[in-house]
Each structure stands twice: as structure tokens, then as C-alpha cells.
Amino acid sequence: MFGIFFEEINHAGAGGLWAELVSNRGFEAGGSTTPSNIDPWSIIGNETNIIVGTDRTSCFSQNKVALRMEVLCDIGGSITCPTGGAGIYNPGYWGMNIEQGKTYKLTMYVRSMDAVNLSVSLTSSDGLQNLATANIVTAALDIANWTKVELLLEAEGTNVNSRLQITTAQKGIIWLDQVSLMPLDTYKGHGFRAGLVSMLADLKPRFIRFPGGSYVEGEWLRNAFRWRETVGPWEERPGHFGDVWKYWTDDGLGYYEFLQLAEDLGASPVWVINNGISHNDQVDTSTIPAFVQDALDSMNLLESDPDSKWGSVRASMGHPEPFELKYVALGNQDCWKKNYRGNYLKFYYAIKAAYPDIQLVSIVMVLLCKLDHPADLYDFHLYTSGNDMFTRAHQFDRTSRSSTGPKAFVSEYLDHGSNVGQGTFFSALAQAGFLIGLEINSDVVEMASNAPLFDQRLPILGGDNVNLKIAVSGLQNVVNSSGSTTTVLTSKNLMDENSFKEPNKVAPLQNMLQNAGTNMDVVIVPHSLTSFDLALSETNYWSAI
């Protein structure tokens, strides 16, 4: 049961999986006190022809900040606008990747008492290459109230470092808010970047743990992820500053979207909830019931009827059918905190009473805390060097085989030693060795996909060829040699790594397994991970690594 651990870190979601191209689309990142910083928005022109600031006049009650753009220049007036007009631009996250022939949907809210003639363009980072343009023209008072504007922009060129421009050569005051630019070709139409999520789908994950670890906690509870503020219309979500990883997220990628992603990938969602504990403050157990009810409401949104309070929110977002939820993790890496156990027990018994089939994960990491409370699973995190990762293949060999005790959920493992680079082949092998250890111990580790075929473990790293005799018994059907394959992941150098320039420098190679059968002589090349996939008659397959 290998899956994905997702955390909003290093813009994995905002600017990553989530396809929104505009950074700080609601002008809220600078805070609620105005005037405020509008970074990364910048002006086109200078202070003689445009004044840009923020005020609290938005039509959205939870995010009141809007952009006020006063254009001082005009065509033929005393102050002449620069070529193309004055206005603002947004570079997105490190430049927008605009591709020729693709269509992008612009949505924004506009208000003005004056006649408006706005040009909306996709350009190169210096504004000189025009990739797509559309115009918004209104008479005076037509948009005196906030008005939603939607446009489709078809790119006539490609530029990986593009920006969105909103300009005018007409004097007046214009307010803008909630400016969004999304590609139309998102994954299954659900707002995720098609290329990235397609690669995730190729991994065939069986679960996705979200929305993170420390991101869920926050440095302070006031900045923790709050699911209620991430559901409903995206324009009405206030967004928040993730104070652990130090950047703003508009929460377009929210609780509902994570559930949709899990469903699209055919993966079980593992919902990590805040248990009233952050890195620096914690709720006393005597006052935790409000947090417990908040957690119950989040599960109610998943499973309740579409005409109920929370089920109607789910239905309004396009999913009248319930989502399936099997796993809930109660907190993250905080088992040593003063109020952890007391808070945990409040959550555990309340959730079990309402949803007895949900598997609850204790964040007791064994090496740090004692598991002295009920749990279906216990969390295990491993951050270590590649060399140590190899030895951790034996981590669970001596674990008690009690039939009643909770199994391990190895929800975070990472080689972060000196040899990891940007993701070296050595690091990949080290983690593969650790995962093989999990599979061998799948009776005590919930994450292992199935029981192993072999009783003997071969050395997991070496510089010599290994001659191996494989004998398979107990198959229900004969081996189909014509459909059997061998897949090898190896490279000339252990420090090789993939990059944007060479994305397939280290990649698995698949070939036909010529001597496939129940008895085989095979050769394992040095520093490699090799999979033998035996095709059986009809539709049954057995895999051995």
C-alpha cells in the first residue's frame, strides 16, 4: 500500500500541483491592513501615470482587500500613457509557462464608475512578446458594482517565463479583485496541472496523506491549516500564511480539492487533522471539544447527504456523491507535547463513536513516545542518510507480531544525507532497499502492498553481479513466458540524478523475460533495483522484486 505524502512545502501545491498561474490573486498576501504590499504584482508605467494601492472595498466578506488602480494618463491628454498603456502585471510563480495553442481562462472582478477599456494580455517577462490579448470595454456606470469578468486567452506562442498584464490608456479609477488565470486542460478538469498529476498517476499510489505534516500544525495555531476556510467558492476563501514554510497560499487547493485528487488517482485519502497543537502553542484538553467538533464536521462534509448542511457544500462544489474516507491521522509529530495524549483520546473516542469504520492513526513514533493509548495505526517517520537508510531495511524485523496491536504507518521517509543531491540514483536505491524491508514485514507495516514471495533476503547493495536462482511455487496458473518482463533501474554512476535537461537520465528499462518460468536462472547487475513480472495465463500476475 505505497502512496503519496503531500505537504504544502516549497510551493508543492500553490505554484505546483494546483494549476492557478496567478500568485496572490486576491491581493490578500500583504495582510488585512491597507495600504498593503501587493507582491509579486508590479506596475507598468511610473508614478506620473499610475497610482496603485489597496483598500478594503472587496465584495467578499472573508477577504476584503482589493486593488485600487488610479490611471492618471490618457490618449491625447496632458499626461501621455506609455506604449500599450499603464497598469499592473503578475509574473506568477517564477514566471508563467504559457504554451502555444493552449487556452487559458481569466476570471476577475472589476468595479469602476468610469468608462473602462482594459487590455488583458499574456506576454514575455519584459512585455515585448505578446502571446495573447483580449479587451474589456464598458460604458460609464456599467460596472459601478463589482462585476465578474471571464475571458478565454488562446496563446499564439510559447514562453516559459511569461506574465499576465492588465493595462489601459484611459484615465480613471478601477478596482480589481480575485484575478485568476487557469489553463483549460487541467487533470480531469479538476484544476490540477495535467503533466504533474499524470506522473503521479503513473506511480499508481494507493493512498494520499494530506494536507501535510508541519503545515497542518503551524508554528502557531492561528496560522494552522483550517479546512472550513478552504471549501466553497474559491473567491470567498480567505487564504492564509503558512508560517512553518513561510509563504502565503490562497487555498484554491483546499480540503475538497485534496479529496477530489485522491479520487481521481484512485487513492484512499488520509486526512491529517490538527489536534489542537502547533509547534509553539497548544489547546488545553479541557477546551479541546470545539476542535473535536471541527474534525467531525470535516468528516460530515465527506459522507453526509447532499441536502444536509455540509453535504450541500460538497454537492455545490460538484460532488453530490459522498467521498470515501478510511484513514484519519490525529496530529503530526507532537506525541511528546503536554496535551497530546489527553487531546488524542478526546478525538479518538468521539470519532470512533460517529465513524467506527475509520482507521485512526496515532502520531506516536515509537522511538520517541510510548504507545499507551488505543490506535488502529501508529505513525513512523524516518529522516536519515542514504547509508543508514539501507540498514533500516531491517527496522521492523524484530517488531512484535501481536495480532491485536496496531500496525505501523510509515508516512514519512526521506534520505536527506550528503549524497542525496537533487535526487541521486544512490538515494533512490537506498530508499528502495528500505521499502523492500517494509514489504518483507508487511504483517506489521500497513503500507506494504502484499506479502513477499521469498523467504531469503539477498544483499541490497553491492558492486558485483549476483547470480540468482528463482523458484516459484503455489501459482494457480502456468507462467506465460511471452508476456513476462524484467524491469531494471540502474545507472553508470550512483550520483546520477534526473533534471529538467535530462529528465530520463535514471529511468527503469523494461525487457522481455526470455526464460520466464517457475524455475529461472537470472543475473542481477550491480547497484540496481530489478523487478521480475511473471505473466500467468488468463489475467493473474505475480511480481517479485
Automatic annotation (TrEMBL):
Pfam family, one: ASD1_dom
Keyword annotations of the record: Glycoprotein, Hydrolase, Signal
Record has Glycoprotein as a keyword: yes
Superkingdom to which the source organism belongs: Eukaryota
One GO molecular-function entry: alpha-L-arabinofuranosidase activity
InterPro entries to which the protein is assigned, alphabetical: Alpha-L-AF_C, ASD1_cat, Galactose-bd-like_sf, GH, Glyco_hydro_b, Glycosyl_Hydrolase_51
Reaction(s) the record says it catalyses: Hydrolysis of terminal non-reducing alpha-L-arabinofuranoside residues in alpha-L-arabinosides
Keyword set includes Signal: yes
Domain Alpha-L-arabinofuranosidase C-terminal: 411-528
GO biological process, one term: L-arabinose metabolic process
EC code: 3.2.1.55
Family: Belongs to the glycosyl hydrolase 51 family.
Protein name, entry field: non-reducing end alpha-L-arabinofuranosidase
